[in-house]
């Protein structure tokens, strides 16, 4: 299992690294080809090479990025998860403008990864959960986490089947809060 720690980004940092919120660094064509919708806000980008060494089950490729965008419809979050094999080429400033009601989604939070045996209550990646794999577990009450969902005092989960994850087919990712 892969644990996550975050820190609010300060000063100079690589915008093409793993992060929650702020300005995504992604393929520019995603803005015009329908990959990203106008209703989507940027939740996180995960640079696989930064945590691949902890992927002991071998579920992910050696490189690339996983992007998680969310839209808010009818009182629930709808995930739009994407994979990109190449190094992203465009920093999209103010991507989350207009989503202030969700907390500070404009500030950037850099991500560090570590191997862990336990993180049931914390923020983590790639954890087995019965028939599904927890792609990302987000606990807003972890140290230094952005305030997104903090008022719920619950944990957000994005799950996927192991087969879909190995195929990098993110079309059936489920998002729920428990």
Notes on the protein architecture:
With 178 residues, the protein is mostly beta strands. It has one domain (2-177): Hypothetical protein YwqG fold, CATH 2.30.320. Strands 6-5-4-2-8-1-9-10-11-12 form a ten-stranded antiparallel sheet. The mean pLDDT is 90. The protein is built from one helix and twelve strands; from the N terminus they run βββββββββββαβ.
Fold blueprint:
Elements: E1 2-8, E2 19-20, E3 25-26, E4 41-47, E5 65-73, E6 76-84, E7 90-91, E8 109-115, E9 124-129, E10 132-138, E11 156-161, H1 162-166, E12 174-177
Antiparallel strand pairs: 1-8, 1-9, 2-4, 2-8, 3-7, 4-5, 5-6, 9-10, 10-11, 11-12
What's the rounded overall pLDDT mean? 90
Largest sheet: 10 strands, antiparallel
Backbone structural class: mainly beta
By CATH, the superfamily comes out as YwqG-like
Helix count, DSSP H or I runs of 4 or more residues: 1
Gist of the model:
Helices cover 3% and strands 38% of the residues. By secondary structure, it is mainly beta.
